[in-house]
Write a structure and sequence with these properties.
- By secondary structure, the chain is α/β, with parallel strands linked by helices.
- It is built from eleven helices and eleven strands.
- A five-stranded mixed beta sheet has the order 3-4-5-10-11, sandwiched between helices. Strands 1-2 form a two-stranded antiparallel sheet. Strands 6-7 form a two-stranded parallel ribbon.
Length: 326
Amino acid sequence: MKFKSRNLRAIAELVVGDKEFFPYRSSSFITQFFEECDLDFVHDGSTRRHWTADRLEELLQEPQPAAHALPERFVHVLRVLMHKSDAEPGDSDRSKALEELNKPLSREGYEAFYGEDELLYIRHIDTNKISLAANPHRPFTPKEIEKRDQLISYLSKCSEDELIEDVLLPLFRQLGYHRITAAGHKDKALEYGKDIWMRFILPTQHVLYFGIQVKKGKLDASGVTKATNANVSEIYNQVLMMLGHEIFDPETSRRVLVDHAFIVAGGEITKQARNWLGGKLDASKRSQILFMDREDILNLYIANGLPLPQKALPAAESEFDDDIPF
């Protein structure tokens, strides 16, 4: 990835503190700043702004985690730069500093913003793709744990369509999938085992197609389907149908087969259910099956910084007392 020299210099001025609302950093403090960013850059005594711009350019040359996403270490430098603990007088919430950072970023098609966790995020303006190396297995902050608990409550009470529309579609868009299409109840007869189909473009520009079968509750291998559980044998025929029927991609004007099938459950997918399905499918089809259960959904959703669905947010307390005073 490459930024214009003008924009790199503008960001470098913020790092070295040559702009208002950013702490001034002399040579040793520039080195110290990059140490805080877990980088081994040592200032060599040359012009601070130009040297820093060269280091930023090096970071931009590193691999992108996804299309329209900035390299991980470049984003980390901006996060450290914009930490709210470094607020200058007259800018306690760092809104003015954020405005300065967004001037060069917007010229490159990006926008910085603070999330609910008070950390900085970078969003691609055209695609809304957030530049974030999301590790779903990292420890979560207290605010993220609270957000996760709210999402758990929502998953316990939402319908299957709400799970698809409010949770899965935003999640898969954030993960870089394209042309995400949900069948919905109106088209159930024509979905051929797929609640959703989508595609993923590899860095080589090859395209993989995915079909998704969604169940709201727990997916197990018990002999009887319960009210809150789905039996994996019900999924078996739908998976075979999904892998065997073509889908029409309007962007390429051709019919294609699904490369992989996601089985997604709003509850747990038991080990017995996975093993039962694996035993029923032949070797070639087993490699096409991907599982995603509640834990996967929760961890990916929180790690990617997605906002909670509207219905998952706690109800705002009324400003007025509802009791009649007489």
